[in-house]
């Protein structure tokens, strides 16, 4: 079936199809209310993810890593009766909140001391009221116990932690706990006006991320949407064209999520990228059809119906190619080991195909039955783009050499690009959590927490054997001497403290017990006297060292883990196995794995698209030429970003996926128009001028509109969104430059010079 026949069928049945599509979209609206944004970071990992398995095993052996932290801050020392009273009450009463398993703080730290031959283990503050003697005793304990100092109270004594372990049973748990904590803290703030109480921990990180994404969706995305609509009205010079384009965009977005709701109701913050990508392709599809219609009407002096048919004939194939190649490209995201990024690729593929269907049904039908009014003119309105085409083709070698040099420099800059993630910098200082993070970092000089796990290989073995304790001690000493580490806590530290207590508190006896029997005795005494975890599993086969690191990024956290494992592999580990876990390490690997898989997947997709173009245009030469403008914009954009910013994170790797559609769209439309003219017998020069005359204005229009729209994201308080808006706008501009300058130069030199 040829294109004119399809066009006639569309004219006949386009209204019915459009009405059917609208009814389907309306019927699917109730499904949108079922969506929820997941607060659980574990959704980012597949069930076979090794880091997630290690974390789950650790949580089963010890306790959950999900936590809620109350940060108490004062302008004066908290080592006072009022300060310790507030900390004690917070620690006791936070256990009344839903989903709280346990709580710990300075006042509830179980301090070991000896009286003659009797070992006493008891909380620093046993009960209220807090007396002056309690304050002096706590001051003494902070100086005496190495593991207590700078753990729950900052060295300045003005900031303290109250740590609560959370048991997350369902998706609503974080929200319920967050709201309950806010209400619960209000009376404390009234009772202690001189103190400030701030929330932190994994619960707050998840809640704040959801709030930030929601805030962007409610404020910036609509503003961006409005700017794009206004841009359409101004540049297409038609309210009708802008309205039809708006309908196509809106229906494409709605139906994408409606189709996705048939399979899943859970959304992650990653899904926030989907509307932007769909909008990009939907706008481009509609703009190409309308600008071609306008060109035929005003400059070729065709009738409205002839102009509509002309626009459909020259755009149907490139729009189809763009949509399907983009869909194929984003489906490569399924190579990622993170389910949300797999969902991202699938949703974008659904969305661009829906946008393709709607643009080829609704826009041609609207052009015929509700056409925009463009007055005919005798002078061509695209003289400027023709002059640009002649200027580029007249200086081919200069532009090509300059382009090669520029791309080479950018490629070198990309090789220097640091790929990492810094979760602590996700939020601007307008967020309470960011302010709390900065306070913790300044007061404690640490921000990240990891768990180093040692496990005996034999079921009848015990960590409490002297040979294992010595290995554990050597490991902790190695960790403490690492430049990133600011604090360590371990089972051997507890044994050393008990050994010192039992030897008249002499500092020289702050060492491991000298005999196996003494080590067993200390373990028994502690288990009989304490209710708190001694960092040893119930079967005594597993122990862990809690370490705190200075503020750093994901790459350095992974390097630290590798350094620890390398050191351990060089030791006589006496049948012990070592592993590391913790939220910060898991997110570091999430960034590491997905950044590389996103980049490699996107580059592979661009390569596959270029290969497909060889078969589509039946020309190896055109397919190879197309590979350069498909890949070069990403090289230029990331190269400039590397030279100015220096690093990219997980969110910025999505940009190449988001921009892939418009990059491929620009290339396919330009080459398809060139190919069309070349097949008709025109020379390379004339074919390039024809391509400029048809698509030049469309490419410029889409770039200006989309760049203006996405630039609004720069004002987001969420750093990934802010950076995404900046890099995506840069990528769109680079794509236009490549297609307007480098691509014509390549065609002039390597394409057939027909006369």
């Amino acid at each position: 079936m040829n294109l004119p026949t399809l066009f006639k069928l569309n004219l006949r049945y386009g209204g019915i199809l459009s009405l059917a599509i609208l009814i389907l979209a309306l019927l699917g609206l109730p499904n949108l209310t079922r969506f929820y944004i997941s607060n659980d970071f574990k959704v980012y990992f597949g069930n076979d993810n090794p880091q997630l398995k290690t974390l789950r095993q650790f949580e089963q052996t010890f306790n959950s890593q999900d936590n809620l932290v109350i940060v108490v801050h004062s302008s004066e020392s908290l080592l006072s009766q009022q300060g310790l009273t507030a900390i004690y009450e917070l620690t006791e009463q936070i256990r009344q909140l839903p989903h709280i398993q346990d709580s710990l703080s300075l006042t509830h730290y179980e301090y070991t001391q000896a009286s003659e031959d009797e070992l006493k283990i008891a909380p620093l503050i046993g009960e209220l009221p807090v007396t002056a003697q309690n304050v002096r005793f706590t001051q003494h304990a902070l100086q005496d116990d190495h593991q207590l100092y700078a753990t729950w109270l900052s060295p300045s004594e003005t900031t303290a932690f109250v740590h609560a372990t959370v048991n997350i049973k369902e998706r609503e748990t974080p929200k319920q706990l967050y709201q309950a904590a806010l209400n619960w803290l209000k009376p404390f703030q009234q009772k202690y006006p001189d103190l400030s109480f701030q929330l932190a921990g994994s619960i707050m990180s998840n809640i704040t991320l959801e709030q930030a994404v929601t805030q962007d969706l409610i404020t910036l995305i609509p503003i961006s949407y409005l700017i794009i609509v206004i841009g359409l009205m101004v540049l297409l010079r038609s309210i009708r064209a802008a309205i039809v384009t708006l309908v196509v965009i809106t229906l494409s977005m709605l139906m994408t999520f409606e189709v996705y709701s048939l399979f899943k109701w859970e959304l992650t913050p990653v899904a926030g990228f989907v509307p932007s990508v769909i909008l990009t392709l939907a706008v481009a599809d509609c703009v190409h059809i309308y600008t071609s219609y306008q060109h035929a009407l005003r400059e070729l002096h065709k009738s409205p119906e002839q102009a509509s048919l002309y626009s459909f004939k020259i755009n149907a194939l490139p729009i189809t190619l763009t949509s399907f190649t983009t869909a194929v490209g984003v489906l490569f995201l399924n190579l990622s080991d993170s389910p949300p990024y797999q969902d991202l690729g699938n949703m974008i593929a659904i969305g661009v195909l829906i946008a393709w269907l709607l643009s080829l049904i609704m826009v041609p039908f609207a052009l015929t039955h509700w056409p925009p009014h463009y007055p005919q003119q005798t002078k061509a309105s695209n003289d400027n783009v023709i002059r640009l085409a002649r200027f580029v083709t007249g200086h081919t070698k200069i532009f090509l050499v300059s382009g090669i040099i520029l791309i080479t420099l950018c490629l070198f800059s990309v090789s220097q690009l640091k790929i990492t993630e810094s979760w602590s910098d996700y939020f601007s200082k307008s967020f309470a959590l960011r302010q709390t993070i900065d306070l913790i970092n300044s007061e404690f000089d640490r921000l990240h927490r990891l768990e180093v796990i040692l496990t005996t290989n034999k079921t009848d073995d015990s960590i409490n054997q002297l040979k294992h304790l010595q290995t554990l001690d050597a490991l902790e000493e190695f960790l403490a001497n690492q430049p990133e580490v600011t604090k360590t806590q371990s089972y051997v530290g507890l044994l050393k403290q008990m050994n010192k207590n039992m030897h008249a508190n002499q500092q020289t006896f702050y060492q491991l017990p000298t005999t196996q029997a003494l080590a067993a005795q200390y373990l028994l005494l502690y288990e009989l006297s304490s209710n708190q975890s001694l960092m040893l599993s119930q079967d005594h086969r597993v122990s862990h060292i809690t370490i705190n690191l200075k503020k750093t990024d994901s790459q350095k956290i992974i390097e630290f883990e590798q350094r620890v494992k390398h050191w351990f592999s060089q030791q006589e580990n006496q049948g012990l196995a070592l592993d590391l876990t913790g939220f910060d390490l898991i997110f570091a690997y999430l960034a590491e794995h997905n950044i590389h898989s996103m980049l490699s997947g996107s580059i592979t997709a661009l390569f596959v698209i270029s290969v497909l173009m060889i078969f589509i245009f039946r020309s190896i030469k055109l397919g190879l030429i197309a590979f350069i403008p498909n890949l070069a914009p990403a090289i230029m954009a990331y190269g400039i970003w590397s030279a100015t910013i220096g690093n990219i994170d997980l969110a910025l790797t999505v940009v190449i996926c988001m921009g892939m559609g418009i990059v491929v769209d620009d290339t396919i439309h330009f080459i398809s128009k060139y190919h069309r003219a070349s097949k008709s017998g025109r020379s390379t020069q004339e074919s390039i001028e024809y391509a400029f005359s048809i698509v030049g204005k469309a490419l410029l229009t889409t770039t200006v509109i989309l760049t203006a729209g996405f630039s609004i994201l720069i004002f987001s308080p969420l750093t990934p969104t802010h950076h995404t808006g900046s890099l995506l706008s840069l990528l769109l501009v680079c794509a236009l430059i490549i297609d307007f300058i480098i691509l014509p130069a390549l065609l002039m030199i390597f394409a057939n010079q027909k006369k």
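The first helix runs from residue 3 to 27. The two ends are 33 Å apart (CA to CA).
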